[in-house]
Amino acid sequence: MAGSEAAWQAAQQGINVVIHEMRPKVETFAHRTGNLAEMVCSNSFRSDDDEQNAVGLLHWEMRAAGGVIMTTADAHKLPAGGALAVDRDPFAEAVTAKLTSHPNIQISYEEIDTLPTDGNWIIATGPLTSGKLADAIAGATGAEALAFFDAIAPIVYAESIDMGQAWRQSRYDKGETEEERTAYINCPMSKDQYDAFINALLAADKTEFKEGETAGYFDGCLPIEVMAERGRETLRHGPMKPVGLTNPHAPDVKPWAVVQLRRDNALGTLYNIVGFQTKMKYGAQTDVFKQIPGLQDASFARLGGIHRNTFLNSPTLLDDQMRLKSHPHIRFAGQITGVEGYVESAAMGLLAGRLAAAEMQGHTLAPVPHTTATGALVTHITGGAEAKTFQPMNVNFGLFPPVEGLKGGRRGRKDRYKAYTDRAKADWTGWLSQSSLDAA
């Protein structure tokens, strides 16, 4: 995501760009294709609400900047209530086609396994940076790359879901169309069924870690069994919460818990189990997931998995232009910088591409206002976060400077978020305009 966006932004500024992509010659655990911008963990870019949600605001900023990731996502979106979900394979194919056909972009399918000593580079290798390059980065920075583990949710064939038990409904009926309001498939559980499911989850065989690895999970992508280990009620207050849903098969019976599945392709033949990242072994997964009412006869297009995810201690290593302080001809972008999520990663690619292009054209862009979603993120990773406790971060309004005169707390949240987004849009528009004037 980040590398694709960085290349697009620099090329759109008139810079000749070479993308170095090791796939498909060198494969990773999680990827299935050689396409650029392949989506691995999920097909969702999360909320598209640009007035009340920080990630929706980030969508808005990237669209305003002509981002290839967001424009392509919009062209391949699927019904998902208030979220932006995409048909993942056509999306990646379209991004690849746009970059391949751009007159200022070349693509080299060769692995880079050392840090380049000259030229202008953006390293956007994501959560699965190859071992040799990761070692080279660690050697150059003088600090060990930090690591956590990202888990992948399973995908189910829609035809194998028992709709006599499950039903279609987005939480709180969100969405402007009937298709949006019925974007999710819901599988209800009684208290006894939930308790049996938790027991099976806790007892299931899990993937063992290799020697020297530690399970430093990011809280936004916890495996369900890890959540269950934190307390038996954790899942029903998390991805299995039953709120905002009414079972039409038993409208007077409130489910104790609900498992949601979200459409994963345009044909509607595949659904992913929302929030069900897992490190259970494959055989255990099928046994446990078939205990979910409606999935007792489920067929899986893909089971869950787990992979290592490395990231820099960016507050100590990167400057405010996203350059490696010890090697300023190298920038980093995307998840390796310590942001979490497709959109956040792509946004850091967008910014890195623009910063690099400006520098190569002989001028320096002004810092992005930290009142914007993009600015809040880059400020956080390049100095706003505490280096000693630095962990991957999703964009959220807690990273934004307060708007004076507004009430705090839950009651004032709606007005406060609208004020954040109004201010951000004005400041981002101004920054884009000034950036264009500087380039001219």
UniProtKB/TrEMBL annotation:
It is an enzyme of class 2 (transferase). The keyword ATP-binding does not apply. The keyword Transferase applies. One of its GO terms (biological process) is tRNA wobble uridine modification. Its main location: cytoplasm. Its EC number is 2.1.1.74. It is found in: Cytoplasm. One of its GO terms (molecular function) is tRNA (uracil(54)-C5)-methyltransferase activity, 5,10-methylenetetrahydrofolate-dependent. Residues 2-362 form the MnmG N-terminal domain. GO terms for cellular component: cytosol. It catalyses: uridine(54) in tRNA + (6R)-5,10-methylene-5,6,7,8-tetrahydrofolate + NADPH + H(+) = 5-methyluridine(54) in tRNA + (6S)-5,6,7,8-tetrahydrofolate + NADP(+); uridine(54) in tRNA + (6R)-5,10-methylene-5,6,7,8-tetrahydrofolate + NADH + H(+) = 5-methyluridine(54) in tRNA + (6S)-5,6,7,8-tetrahydrofolate + NAD(+). It comes from the Bacteria. Its cofactor is FAD. Keywords: Cytoplasm, FAD, Flavoprotein, Methyltransferase, NAD, NADP, Transferase, tRNA processing. SUPFAM superfamilies: FAD/NAD(P)-binding domain (SSF51905). Pfam families: GIDA. Belongs to the MnmG family. TrmFO subfamily. Catalyzes the folate-dependent formation of 5-methyl-uridine at position 54 (M-5-U54) in all tRNAs. NCBIfam families: gid_trmFO (TIGR00137), PRK05335.1 (NF003739). This is Methylenetetrahydrofolate--tRNA-(uracil-5-)-methyltransferase TrmFO. It comes from Pseudooctadecabacter jejudonensis.
